[in-house]
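User: Could you write out the 3D structure of this protein bound to magnesium ion? I've included everything you need below.
Assistant: Certainly. Input first, then the structure.
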Amino acid sequence: YVVKDGLYSYKYTLSIIKRIINNVNMKVLIVDDSKTFLESTKNLIEKYRLTVFTATNGKEALEILENNKNIKVILTDYYMPIMNGLEFVRSVRKNYSKDELSIIVTSVTQEKTIASKFLKCGANDFLYKGFTQEELYVRINANIEVLELFEELKNRANRDFLTNLYNRRYLFEVGNKDLKIANEKNQNFFIALIDIDKFKIINDTYGHSVGDIAIKMVATFLQNSFDDEEIVARLGGEEFCIVFANKDIDKVKDKLEELRKIFEKNSIKVDEHRLNFTISIGCCFKRFDTLDKMIQEADNGLYEAKDLGRNMVRY
Ligand code: GH3
Ligand code: MG
Ligand code: MG
Ligand code: MG
């Protein structure tokens, strides 16, 4: 697609191919009062395998933005009816920050100060109309690259290095926000702490690196056992926390019991070793004002489970 109309370095070509494969979900919104510009630019960008939305004015564009997830790049005109490009960019930036959405401005204007005006009010890039196909591609590509770097950075801050589950930092930040909402709306909010039983024996018997693989496998299993609505986090060591917002209490209890049984009945295979271990779960089904207090409460349940012989769910 893109690669054939110019000479690109190997690395750049690879990054484009990767993007074409990965970013089927990435969407571009073009805002311009010229229907011919919209049509021709849409065609160009679609060759790049990005989904394109078009709007003929800022108001329409804001509506499209609100109703569609994953719009990552906006290409906007300056002179337009209803609201001009500057007003449009300011409105967009009220709700969408630069780490989630890039704005590229295109205009025929020859005003020397216009690019800086746009950049100051929240645009990322400025292109004079009459740009070549290649320049458009390269600019969009560069802007998407920056968004991907932000994404990578957020992942590194929010995810646990060993398991790629959410880490403690993310759990407390997002969990407390969700808990606040649940308290305001008087909705169910539960947490479960899961700790592997006698994990030290696994480390002592098979070595720390086998232990690490086991922790990773448990993490992946837990992640796949819940849907996107639950927060599945690694609290540390071989201890995990699940947050259930607005869920039915009986269904959660059944689910946790089911999980306990799965570990009881199955073993994990690491290299030539078969590891047999169980898990203990402590829960908190009562809302407190902070996640910290809920975790303490669940930890009491976990302690009881360990005390009473492990391999059980306590609330
Ligand atoms: P209990 O049933 O009481 O939970 O016994 P336990 O042996 O699992 O004890 P505890 O939960 O207190 O300790 C967990 C052990 O897990 C301690 C440590 O050796 C090991 N551990 C903690 N983090 C890691 C890790 O990242 N990798 C590996 N391989 N082991 C870890
Ligand atoms: Mg115009
Ligand atoms: Mg343990
Ligand atoms: Mg532990």
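The pocket of magnesium ion (ligand 3) is lined by residues 195-197, 199, 238 (CB under 6 Å).
User: Perfect, thank you.
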